[in-house]
Amino acid sequence: MARVDLKNVTKDWGTAKAIDDISLSLENGEFAAVLGPSGCGKSTTLFMLAGIYLPTSGDILFDGARVNDVEARDRNVGIVFQSYALYPNMTVLQNITFPLRFKEISRADAERSAREIAELVEIEGLLDRRPNQLSGGQQQRVALARALVKKPNLLLLDEPLSNLDATLRLSMRTEIRRLQRELGVTTVLVTHDQIEAMTMADRIVCMNQGRIEQEGTPEALYSRPETVFAASFIGSPPMNLLAGEASDGGIKVGEAVLDTAGDVPPGAVKVGIRPEHITVNGEGVQAEILIAEPLGRETLYTARSVLGTTRFLEPTSVPRFKVGDQVRLGFEPEHTILFDGNHDRRLEGVRAHV
Amino acid sequence: MSGEERMARPVDQPDWESLARRALTMARIKRGALIVFLTLVSVPVLLPFFWVVVISFSARTGGVETAVLWKACGVLAPCVLGYAATHVVFPAPRQRMTAALVAAGVAVAGLALLVGSDLHFDNYRFLANPNLVEDLRGAATAGGQFPWVWDAFFNSLAVAAASTFTKVLIATLAGYYLSRFAFRGRSFFLQSLLILEVFHPWMLTIPIFLVIFWVGLLNTLSAPILVLTVIDMPFFIFIMKGFFDAVPWDIEMSAMTDGATRRQAFWHVVLPQAKGGIIAISVLGFIRGWEEYVFVTALRTGNSYWVMSTYLYYVAEDVMGVDYGLVAAVSVFYMLPSLLLYLFLQKYLTQLTFGGVKG
User: What keywords appear on the UniProt entry (chain A) (predicted)?
Assistant: First the structure.
């Protein structure tokens, strides 16, 4: 269990910058999710924490001590790989005791701790099997047990759920969260699935192109995204972003003009509004339904109006509107987020409404 | 109403049962044809071996007993064909097993009855008696003293084992290094490995002879061991690289975060997964050393050492008047180790193609 800090860490591959000056602090026992699209440098960050890659510059600290030059095997970090990376030539028990082989622990003690951890992840009946005799979910549990058996300073999860089917993913999500709480181990989850990050983590670190876009609690990232990237990446269906031009008279979006609250600096802006915050048939602009997608609990519509193409959600399982129906769409100022159109950063203290 | 009736005229239902019957019959015919084809193709391959084995057990001093050969063929051919036929007719494994046992039983009984009295072990007396030719003809042969077969056997074993061990050791380490590490000249190294495969090693016989002469290893067993090791090396390195390429990086990284050093990760995790490749190149390397003739003859100037291939050549050519029974017996004895190796390890040899493709 450790406090982990990254200070101005950079990683270059030749001339390409994979990680561009990131700083990050994880409290002891915290569960952080690093969220981003593929190629954003999230796995590179993870491998640098593990000691597999060396940072080009910057420091990595465990409990305040610099560990840059400490080898992977001495960092006492547990990893669950996307492919699970179980050792196919060993039984499940041998897989789990493998990390203890290199420590000064008697074989009997090693087996005892392996059995304890196996019980914790509920695979105690599979200890004599080989990895190729296990289902995906069972392999995942073995990988977790192997990562946890050495009582790691830090648990790293590299897209651990992406190879599981939807139902299993849901149950493993709660399972991993429960284990993490029970053991109090500092954990970093790398994922491109924003739902995974939102549901499991205490804190989300949203990355893009080797940089941290924003970090904060899941609620903060959802309700106050700092950048256009964070706004569009978090939330499903994604936030509507209406490109417009601000002037004294309001914000011109397409052929419509939105009223503003607060002083919007003139120039290009983007108006963000989440699909669930769009009001239907109140005050607003005329729109035509293009697509209606029943999602089970609610229905997602795509509509075209003078504002452009917008998506909105309605909490009815049976669609209320058909394709081609005319509706009025509007939104309240407190639900809007304005971004500077040139720098894609949030504008503080200003709102807009129809 | 009348319009609807006209539209609802009976549609031709396919006769599913007859279609299924036809498919099954076709499958059976195809399987039968395949067995006949494979049997025909294997006859020219198997017949010489069969001939050698029969001769080695039946030939009396010098002559060849063709009668025994034809009688044995007459017994075995119907048994094999009969077994093939039952294999087509009976689908259940248990029935096939019974058919195989019956066929084998009939074959053994038939052979015992027809040719049993003609079989003997006289031709194998070379295994126990170093002086068989002198005993027979009262004088040594043209080349001087007749070599002792166990000398040749253990020399061959030494050549095959020593060259195989060196080859496997170096090829494994080099293959791993080429698969995992980026270093200056890596691609050049890989390309030159392939270029070496283009030239036949026999073209190098004379330069190799000179090198061996200057080094002072002429007429020693070390010479063929070294040469064989070097000749197979590029190919074996390539095979091993292919096997290591197929081992995912994740597993190695995982082992290293689990507390293993790179060497321990290689030993405990990576190497066990390249086991198939190691066994395959071991078998290939061993058979290569066991059957080597060109370099063992080229690198000795007299009869300084005997190996099995030169011994067989000696028996076939240098004994005054060819003794077919003896040559056949020596051949069978010579084939046996390769055959056993192949029988027990052939599943690793078939993996070789996959490993090679990946490389």
Answer: ATP-binding, Cell membrane, Membrane, Nucleotide-binding, Translocase, Transport
Residue A304 per-residue DSSP state: E
| A260 within 8 A of A347, measured Cβ to Cβ | no
Q: What radius of gyration, in Å, describes the C-alpha atoms of chain B? A: 29
Q: Which of A180, A212, A231 is the last residue of a domain?
A: A231
Q: Does B254 contact A73 at a Cβ distance shorter than 8 Å?
A: no
Name every residue whose Cβ is closer than 8 Å to that of residue A15 and which is 6 or more positions away in sequence: none
Nearest to A136 by CA among A159, A161, A115, A153: A161
How many domains are contained in chain B? 2
Contact A141, A171 (CB under 8 A): no
B108 and B203 co-located in one domain: no
**Which residue range forms the structural domain that includes residue B104?**
17-120
The predicted-structure confidence for A140-185, as pLDDT tens digits, reads as follows: 999 999 999 999 999 999 999 888 888 888 889 999 999 999 999 9
Question: Could you write out the DSSP letters of every residue in B117-168?
Answer: GG--SGGGGGGT-TTHHHHHHSS-BTTBSPPPHHHHHHHHHHHHHHHHHHHH
The CATH number of the domain where A300 resides is what?
A: 2.40.50.140
ipTM: 0.84
Q: Give residue ranges of A with CB < 8 Å to any B CB.
A: 47, 50-52, 71-79, 81-83, 85-89, 98-99, 101-103, 146, 150
Using the predicted structure, report yes or no on whether residue B164 has a pLDDT greater than 70.
yes
**How would you list the strands of the sheet with A337-340, edge to edge?**
A337-340, A267-273, A240-247, A250-253, A256-261, A351-353
CA distances from B77 to B45, B80, B211 (A): 15, 5, 53
CB contact burial B258-285 (16+ within 10 A = b; e otherwise): bbbeeebbbebbbbebbebbbbbbbbbb
Pairwise CB contact (< 8 Å): B258 & A85 = no
Strand partners, A328: A286
CA distance A114 to B254: 17
CA of A94, closest CA in chain B: separation in Å? 11
Q: Which string of DSSP letters, residue by residue, matches B276-315?
A: HHHHHHHHHHHHHHHH--HHHHHT-SSSS---HHHHHHHH
CATH of the domain at A213: 3.40.50.300
pLDDT at B355: 44
Q: Going edge to edge, which strands form the sheet with A299-305?
A: A308-314, A299-305, A279-294, A326-330
Angle, helix B205-215 to helix B222-245, in steps of 10 degrees: 120
A282 and A254 within one domain: yes
Helix (H) or strand (E) holding B176: helix B149-180
A225 and A248 in a single domain? The answer is no
Q: Which pairing describes strands A240-247 and A267-273: parallel, antiparallel, or unpaired?
A: antiparallel
Chain A residue at shortest CA distance from B260: A73
- Give the position of tokens 């190497």: B271
**A120 and A131 in contact (C-beta within 8 Å)?**
no
Q: State the CB neighbour count (10 A cutoff) for residue A262.
A: 12
Report the alpha-carbon distance of residue A311 to residue A302 in Å, rounded: 4
Domain that holds residue A315: 238-353
Q: A21-67, pLDDT tens digit by residue?
A: 999 999 999 999 999 998 899 999 999 999 999 999 999 999 999 99
Test A51 with B268 for CB contact under 8 angstroms.
no
Q: How far apart are CA A120 and CA A96, in angstroms?
A: 13
By the 10 Å C-beta count (0-12 exposed, 13-18 middle, 19+ buried), A155 is classed as buried
Structure tokens at A177: 């969260």
Q: Tell me the C-alpha to C-alpha distance, in Å, between residue B152 and each of B149, B243, B293, B334.
A: 5, 35, 12, 10
pLDDT range class, residue B265, cuts 50, 70, 90 = very high
In chain A, residues with a C-beta closer than 8 Å to the C-beta of B260 are 73, 98, 101-102
- Name the B residues in 43-62 with CB < 8 Å from any A CB: none
